[in-house]
Amino acid sequence: MDFRVLPSGDLTLTNLTTPACLIGETGDLQTISISLRGGRIAAPAPDLPQLDMAGAMVFPTFIDMHTHLDKGHIWPRAPNPDGTFDGALSTVEADRAANWSGPDVRARMDFALRCAYAHGTSAIRTHLDSIALQGRISFPEFTRLRDEWAGRIELQAACLTLIDRIDPEGGGEFADLADLVAESRGVLGCVTFPDTRLRDRLRAFFAHAGKRGLDADFHVDETGDPEAASLRVIAETVLETGFDAPVTVGHCCSLAVQPDAEWLHTLDLVARAGIHVVSLPLCNLYLQDRQAGRTPRWRGITLVHEMAARGINVSFASDNTRDPFYAYGDLDMLEVMREATRIAHLDHSRANWPNAFLTNPARACGFAAPGFAPGAPADLVICRARNWSELFARPQSDRIVLRAGRQIDRDLPDYTELDHLMR
């Protein structure tokens, strides 16, 4: 149950606490009041009833810019056999071939969206596996869900295929996939890794995206191999081709194990190219540097502090949920914020890291910027916690979520709903 039931109708919530960066101020936390009128945030209004919130922390609803709704919640039927990246790849490939029909994908995506909505997320970008014919199954299901969820969660989809499936000459199956993405109003994506023709394949990728007016979103160097440096090649290719649509890269794990000269040069190129970066700390912590009988030596995440220092737009997101790539998770961005703060040492750092869960992903994906400005939708997440220590010490499972000024039912869907898909 939520920690407080708010009265219905227009009112002013006083004595709220919020990060200063979310209201254009400097410093750490600020005390604010928020007036709600007609489902939107209003200018201060002395005529409205006032409710003292006793210092409760408030955020706009969250943006989760890197997820895998199509993979989500298959763990009971497809567990990772050893917790490794290779184990995840082979297990998902087998499950996809055996089970990913339209009804299966749709049911699991809808289940995940109901979880995200209850936790306080209002915009999501998902990657959809699109190897062979899977894109023709998953994209139509996604577009129907996008329409059904309009007004609750704004949805985007990026195709997910492998860089070595792109014909450097520009034709073949990737051209057909790019057409499908364009028809679906999606984002062009792929996984990059060392390849003898990487630069040529990237030129073809950007040519396909440019021809169809598509944004780009890559899975990049998701490995602890310091020789994996496709991020540098992506940045060089963006600068070489002049590709001017938004480009996002996720993971970029290998940067953390490269020599200083290598990552310094790469990040300078990424900053020059204006590339957006999304870090996925939960999944990367789970998979990277996992070896049987050996304690992991590093956290798996990318160089977020060094990126932010160069003005690179850095975000954090959920990534996988209860599938072979990450056995846990529930598309809860407060959990992502809590764990990212611990894993990446965001505390005792710059005060604007909350933007990495809100305005930064909005900028990367083109979602409406969340905030408290008058006229904005009254979409809020309010936690009983009054400061960072209280916020991160507990999961805030009794938070209040307002959508259009109304307190929503936060009951989560029961896992038994998916039992018929797990047999």
Automatic annotation (TrEMBL):
<dbReference type="InterPro" id="IPR013108">
    <property type="entry name" value="Amidohydro_3"/>
</dbReference>
<dbReference type="GO" id="GO:0035888">
    <property type="term" value="F:isoguanine deaminase activity"/>
</dbReference>
<dbReference type="InterPro" id="IPR052349">
    <property type="entry name" value="Metallo-hydrolase_Enzymes"/>
</dbReference>
<dbReference type="InterPro" id="IPR011059">
    <property type="entry name" value="Metal-dep_hydrolase_composite"/>
</dbReference>
<dbReference type="Pfam" id="PF07969">
    <property type="entry name" value="Amidohydro_3"/>
</dbReference>
<feature type="domain" description="Amidohydrolase 3">
    <location>
        <begin position="192"/>
        <end position="406"/>
    </location>
</feature>
<dbReference type="GO" id="GO:0004131">
    <property type="term" value="F:cytosine deaminase activity"/>
</dbReference>
<dbReference type="GO" id="GO:0006209">
    <property type="term" value="P:cytosine catabolic process"/>
</dbReference>
<dbReference type="InterPro" id="IPR032466">
    <property type="entry name" value="Metal_Hydrolase"/>
</dbReference>
<protein>
    <submittedName>
        <fullName>Cytosine deaminase</fullName>
    </submittedName>
</protein>
